[in-house]
From TrEMBL, chain A:
Enzyme class: lyase
Species this chain originates from: Williamsia deligens
Pfam family, one: CoA_trans
Homology family: Belongs to the 3-oxoacid CoA-transferase subunit B family.
Gene3D superfamilies associated with the record: Glutaconate Coenzyme A-transferase
Protein name: Cholesterol ring-cleaving hydrolase subunit IpdB
From TrEMBL, chain B:
Keyword annotations: Transferase
Gene3D superfamilies the UniProt entry points to: 3.30.30.40, Glutaconate Coenzyme A-transferase
Domain of life: Bacteria
Keyword Transferase: yes
SMART domains cross-referenced by the UniProt entry: CoA_trans
Pfam families: CoA_trans
Name of the protein: CoA transferase subunit A
Any GO MF annotation of the entry: transferase activity
Entry keyword DNA repair: no
Amino acid sequence: MSDVTCAETCVIACAEIFSGAGEIMASPMATTPLIGARLARLTTEPDLLITDGEALIFADTPAVGTSAPIEGWMPFRKVFDVVASGRRHVVMGANQIDRHGNQNLSAFGPLQHPKRQMFGVRGAPGNTINHPTSYWVARHSSRVFTETVDIISGVGYDQIDPANPAYRFHHIHRVVTNLGVFDFRGPDHTFRALSLHPGVTADEVVENTGFEVAGLDDVGETRAPTDEELSLIRDTLDPKGLRDKEVAPAGAAR
Amino acid sequence: MTTGTRRTQTDKTSTLDEAIGEIRDGMTIGIGGWGSRRKPLALVRALARSDVRDLTVVTYGGPDLGLLCAAGKVRKAYYGFVSLDSPPFYDPWFAHARTSGAIEVREMDEGMVKCGLEAAAARLPFLPIRAGLGSAVLDFWGDELRTVDSPYPSADGRTETLVAMPALELDVALVHLDIADVHGNAAYTGVDPYFDDLFCGAAQRRFLEADRVVETTELVESVSPQRMLLNRMNVDRVIHAPNGAHFTFAGDYRRDEAFQRHYAQSAADPESWATFRDHFLDVDEETYQERVVEWTRERTEQKEGAPA
């Protein structure tokens, strides 16, 4: 199949976040990673647990926004038990991410007198200290990828105290954006490019990132979806094309 | 042997204003529910109408915190997040209180709220938790949040240092459940109990509002025992508040998304807020509920009458 859109490439990259995850709870917090998690579950990761985003664990893998038969109960209080158990991989959004993986979704400005209020830290501190965490950024810009975040909600690598074993479960696995796939395996756990989506140049990433990106010299291209994956995305998981509301189709101005 | 007078179990039925009449300036109030889900908004509206000031609020915040901020009741807030759960997501009155510096906050990880309530419910000074380490939560709290070293070293001889989440002790808890009896036995009928039993466990005085107040036999026949979240020991006052969680959702009704949007949009400027307040907040609960019905009917008629 031809004409793979940027959103579809992003879905593939989000699905690959869960490669090898096994029997854990996949908790995607936006449409594209949600399609990605469900795609992984329908292909290589059938043992993932997914929920309806409220309190029910799905037995089947439904399309975005639809329901399915259930296999269990996961009210919020039990989610915190799962977080503490480590058997989870969350994909959160971010208003800001810095070079070491510190993330902000709380507010902009001073702690007790912010300039703009968002959600507060939510579950970000507990997620990042307890189990694998990845991030999804639909519009990769230097406002998001900034030198320093205003409020550390999600914990980055430079906050880790190696002498304190309480930090031993911290792991930021991937950052997927509309430009490419990244991790924090650059020098000293810094932001590193793993692949850029088809048509995206290294210069474009440099222009839209507020700090140096490691690995851009020899970066590969994000792989194309298989025919089976494209069919699952287009016909099964997201027939209404909600992914295109989050990620502009290829060719549109980024 | 004394001849005792035969007594019956306490009838805890109260009005909203009787319950709110117990609340004093400066008290710490825990509010049940989650975001814009099963919030005790009839009690919150009554509190917003009262003369009480300088409250400290502990919550998984939604429009409960927003309405109290709008009424200028909040001095300090402890919360894991504040969300309306649907667009525009950020509560405008909480945002206004924050950006104007009107309230002091002890923002924390969502799991820390549960942990702090559990500590208070078990009458412990703290419970250790991993969440919070390495994050700005430590800066939000300053000296009020400390760490604790494990007395048991890890296998490699190192010591695990964790956040010592202090007990979130409450003067009063406000919760909304779907069905209750007059003694304080109560059940939720939706998919999630949230943390309402913990809020009650952490509080000195526990006020429960319920959509339906029925005989105990009817209560136990209408739900499975696992749904009975509160027992008599957890509750001091029972308030019959049909549709009391409005405009958040409860077991028998959905969130009133249109009205929540109207609430959020009305906060945009002083004039529209004055109108909203005059119409929906400076009135008793019965009038509020009547006006919501009226507002919904007018809105539906306008929509239907609009040119195609």
